[in-house]
Amino acid sequence: MAKGDLIGHMDCPCCGSQADVNEDKNGRPLMFCRHGCKAQLFTRRPEQAEGMLSRIRRAVVQAVDDNKPEPAKGGFWENLTGVA
Length: 84
Ligand SMILES: [Zn+2]
What we know:
Largest sheet: 5 strands, antiparallel
Bound molecules: zinc ion
Structural class: alpha+beta
Shape: globular
Strand content: 25-35%
Number of helices: 3
Number of domains: 1
Number of strands: 5
Strand order of the largest sheet: 4-3-2-1-5
Mean pLDDT: 83
Oligomer: single chain
């Protein structure tokens, strides 16, 4: 999983638009309200990262449902637990 990848979406706490959540260069989630007010919400501490991750709608899960059969288990989820 490359840095900067889209992790999922969440509602922007400022304007309520659907905001993108990407992985920042430290491997933590970073919300960017790309289609709304352009707010950016950084997560500097593990509690913040875990809190945001528990609230987002995962992009990967939707992509799997839409157009992929069964992904190879391993890489992605192992990386996730490694981050947390
Ligand atoms: Zn916003």
